[in-house]
Amino acid sequence: MIRNDQIVEGEPSNLSASIVATLKEQIIHWHYPPEHRLTEVELCKTFNVSRSPVREALRVLATDGFVKKLPNRGYVVRQHNIHEIEELYEVRVALELYAVECLARRGPLNENDKEDLVKLKRTWTDLLNGSSKKAEELARLDTQFHETLAHAAGNKTLLRHLRTINERLMLFRMIDFDKVDRAKSTCHQHLKILKCITAKDTPGARAAMQQNIDEGRNNVHTAIKDALARAYSMKT
Amino acid sequence: MIRNDQIVEGEPSNLSASIVATLKEQIIHWHYPPEHRLTEVELCKTFNVSRSPVREALRVLATDGFVKKLPNRGYVVRQHNIHEIEELYEVRVALELYAVECLARRGPLNENDKEDLVKLKRTWTDLLNGSSKKAEELARLDTQFHETLAHAAGNKTLLRHLRTINERLMLFRMIDFDKVDRAKSTCHQHLKILKCITAKDTPGARAAMQQNIDEGRNNVHTAIKDALARAYSMKT
DNA sequence: GTAGACCGAATTGTATACAATTTGTAGAGT
DNA sequence: ACTCTACAAATTGTATACAATTCGGTCTAC
Lengths: 236, 236
Prior knowledge:
Helix content of chain A is 73%, strand content 4%.
């Protein structure tokens, strides 16, 4: 159920925006199997709203790549096959390597970002020293780490693109983080990246980031087959 | 005026999509000054349609970054300041360097793409040997060159992101190409890139691409001040 | 029994009507 | 003259109504 009081402060009544957020969340959490048809009236009923905001939301989700538009036949949840995951990871590598390279070369642009990096260091050191978290929380922290770096690099446009990539990858990272606790390894890698940045070791930072992303990619790869199988069994 | 018969084949009656395309085109060609307010009813009148497709179009344009949404106050054409251009170019560099690196390392993925590269070579050789074109045509060919490379690299997601970046940059490249004929230099650079790719010279390809983009960036930079000044004079 | 035409339910595409919010302005009060 | 309030116009947000298209099934012709 969508309600106006769910909406973030400063953004007044806007059903469309909250529908976008909710559907994204649901798709990421595999609430719908791939290729599942999203009918307007059905969404209207579940969200208790009229078709106007639903239609606008679907159009936005389509441009973001979460659903696919069939001409005159509505929308379906997009099928993310293994090849597409690979593509998403490649784009992510391209963007994040660039971001971390900038960051290592010229440092964070302002004091706020410098503080953010210190906070990150504390967070991941704490995690390394035993404070355990739930899988979903870990996935969130991991995403936050990478996005904070991109933000500190000072390029809002790059951050925006990275966000849409990561949102779509979240589809599979949820599965991965759900199955295995890889906290230790992730902590070490993140701390290594931060160390290289503060040491202005550009190639080191790039290498550490590449390793971090590659490991995540491999983990997701092994998790994907199960996920797709599960999704298939749901569809039938 | 928007009409259904303007629509591309295979995409049946869809006013919203054609409004998106038309508005994008208009914004890129500086039909509206930055921060110009886009009222729904006004767009309805100029396009001779109702508010539904206009609203959906505006939402899409907002997620693509062409217009900015003010809560409960409609939309305005986004102001692209110099800093944002710089950001767009940085993302473009990150993506295109990655693409050209893949291409130089492992070559085009299939025969079609290999053909495309040959066609590109012919096109730019012809241009170098005198066949002159209008500024707008040149800009189009240049964009096509870069997008063909990304396509040949075989990553559709990367291509999609590159497209949205390039579309927004087109705002300023139009101005630049309009003022000076830089065909010769561009030709040489593009041919150099192609040569490095076929020679599997990865660092060479990266360097040539970096040089090509940097030159474009510099040209645009020098052109921007005039553009902004002109836009300002339009606004007042 | 099969192919093809035709009809109707379901669904999307578009237009309009109504509600809620914002903003500018006129007017009263100080 | 200045500020604050209240109201009206304009504009967005939402809901509903109508048109056009698609798709499945049935019925007929062969």
